[in-house]
Amino acid sequence: MYSLPRFTRFGYNRTRHGSTIHIKKKRISRYIKSRKYSMQVDRHCTEYHWTQAKNVFDFCQLSPIKSAKKDNPISVIEIGPSNGLQNEEKVEIKYKLELIAGLQKAGIKRIEAATYVDPTCIHSDHHDVMKQMNRFSDTEFSVLVSNIKGYEEAVKDYPDTITVFLSASDCTIGDNLSRCTSLSRCTSIIERAKKNGYKTRGQVSCAFNDPYTGPVTSKQVNYAVNHLNKLGCDEIMLSDTTGRATPGDVKRLLLDLCEFNENMYQKLYKYGFHFRNTHGLARDNIMVALDFGIRVFYSSISGLSADNVATEDLVYLLHGLGYKTDINLDKLYNVSRWICHILEKPPNSYYTLGRMMNSDYDQ
């Protein structure tokens, strides 16, 4: 027995044996190499290998949770005006403009305002929306493009960020999402966007599961992530496209990515997640991602587009956990009720529904 703290998933837990803190020797394997004193701890105990710790006590301090301070602001990317409304019957432009204005007044600083993909599948009024909307000086507007033609159309409307998507799966899921067709598209779009001075965001679709082939491996996701990193993406989003991810899947993916890439845990600030609430696990998945230091999340006001995480649910969760967002939840609630009234549908948000049912809440 050793008088050292006992390692767990992250950091350590203290257990007493008599009056001395102990650690079981059989649960830890240590390899001391030359002067670097590199240490490797069994994955079944810590689920991660640290190779830079000088000694066992330094290892206790090096942990994603400890490095992920709650003082770091959360970045909420609102996709309601684009992804959220794409499955709705055509919404008048004046309502889209009012929705974007309301979101900005509520404190949303990052909005995906339009998509430039196949106009036969998505509403083709993106030019009018981008030109007529009121842009607050501190709001970042992004657009989603799928090919060079879409990029050329998007730059006419002067967005702040260009978003591209790349599938982690090898299976073809439509011409826009398959990895074999999107690799070259992403490369050409990002290279041109960087050359023209635009910020870029890469979205890895099917990061957990493919609707045709089933589970997606961490190596497949890592391949797509490395490709986007080599292209110089400013931000990378991992998307649970099918909505089947569990907290265990999220933890496993992040641990594997940290293992595949040196010092990955120090760069998690540039990564984010797009979780779907298909099986009611989005909140749990978000909490796991937060523990790793993830600070960027996609959400849609009132949960528009069926399975998207509702922005007000996300903000309510973050505020309850003590994270800073600078978003006014009351104003967000009003926007949520308003857009549902316009669409003539009930809100897909636990927070909004709960507050509407509690008539005494607003009194």
Gist?
The chain has 363 residues and is an alpha/beta fold. The protein is built from 14 helices and 14 strands. The strands form four sheets. The chain has an eight-stranded parallel beta barrel, surrounded by five helices.
Walk me through what this model shows.
The protein is of the alpha/beta class and 363 residues long. The chain has 2 domains: 6-62, no CATH class; 75-357, TIM Barrel (Alpha-Beta Barrel). It contains 14 helices and 14 strands. It has an 8-stranded parallel barrel with strand order 5-6-7-8-9-12-13-14, surrounded by 5 helices. Strands 1-2 form a two-stranded antiparallel ribbon. The chain is globular and about 50 Å long. Residues 1-67 have low confidence and may be disordered.
Q: Which SSEs are present, and which pair or pack?
A:
Elements: E1 6-7, E2 12-13, E3 16-17, E4 20-21, H1 43-46, H2 56-61, H3 64-67, E5 75-78, H4 80-84, H5 93-105, E6 110-116, H6 126-132, E7 140-145, H7 148-154, E8 161-167, H8 179-195, E9 199-205, E10 209-210, E11 214-215, H9 218-230, E12 235-239, H10 247-260, E13 271-274, H11 282-292, E14 296-299, H12 311-320, H13 329-343, H14 350-357
Parallel strand pairs: 5-6, 5-14, 6-7, 7-8, 8-9, 9-12, 12-13, 13-14
Antiparallel strand pairs: 1-2, 3-4, 10-11
